[in-house]
Amino acid sequence: MILEETYNTKTTDSAEEVYDTVYEPPCTLLDTPMHYCPGCYHSLVHKLMMEVVDEMQIQEQVVGVAPVGCAVFAYEYMDIDMQEAAHGRACAVATAVKRLMPEKYVFTYQGDGDLAAIGIAETIHAINRGENFLIVFVNNAVYGMTSGQMAPTTLPGMLSTTTPTGRDTSFYGQPIKVAELMAQLPGAYYVTRQAVNSANAVRKTKKALLKAFQYQQENKGTCLVEIVSNCPSNWKMTPVECISFINEQMLPVFPVGDIKVPKL
User: Fold this and answer.
1) N or C: which terminus of the chain carries fewer CB neighbours within 10 A?
2) Integer angstrom CA distances of residue 55 from 48, 58, 133, 137, 154
3) How are beta strands 62-66 and 81-84 bridged, if at all?
4) How far apart are CA 205 and CA 211, in angstroms?
């Protein structure tokens, strides 16, 4: 909501109270009716990304790639050039875009079912080659769009539609820590995991996204920003309960912080 600079309200002596504008949405964030589930953090991540694009004044130079999953609707909200990719193929498409137009800022916007399952091969090979683009990885520990099946990131014991009694690690293995895995590859330039479940976490996530876009100017390799997120519908929780679940369950498994940073 935009607070107008002046706003008429009840005052004494017929005087006008004057308010300052404290926030305006980025101009690159389209005024589109929200279709995400109530409390979903995708909309917040969209806002942070477009704030960075606005602040860097690179709207005309950015190309985003969104594959199948909840991430596919990113192009409905971001007023930039976007390219849709098949499920799991965002990094392959981003590689082509960046190689054909190396002057562009290129990013993928992917969920954990897409990136860490069907797209894990494309992700690993793109980072191993050091492709010069940004991967934004939204980790909510489930397949969000397709009814909440177990994802590679689903926590031990966590309920899902395909693990109704909880993820059994003796059968399914441990959740994949994508950021730590990708940071080992020589082509990874900047790898960090952040979250958006508190005001302070939101500020740190925006700072990480800004750094990642800026590092792309140096043409040193791939940047990966993993963002620990939520899925109220498939977690069967209220948005407030999701915050507690992230703090108490998600972050011990997926701790936030920089994992690989450029050497000075």
Assistant:
1) C
2) 11, 8, 19, 22, 35
3) parallel
4) 10
pTM of the model: 0.91
Q: Are 213 and 134 in contact (CB under 8 A)?
A: yes
Distance of CA 51 to the CA centre of its chain: 13
Contact predicate 193/179, CB 8 Å: yes
Digit-coded pLDDT (tens) for 177-217:
999 999 999 999 999 999 999 999 999 999 999 999 999 99
Would you state the structure tokens that stand for residue 48, as one six-digit string? 């942070």
- Which domains can be identified in the chain, with CATH numbers? 42-260 (3.40.50.970)
CA distance 160 to 231: 11
125-156 pLDDT, tens digit each: 999 999 999 999 999 999 988 888 999 999 99
**The pLDDT value given to residue 19:** 87
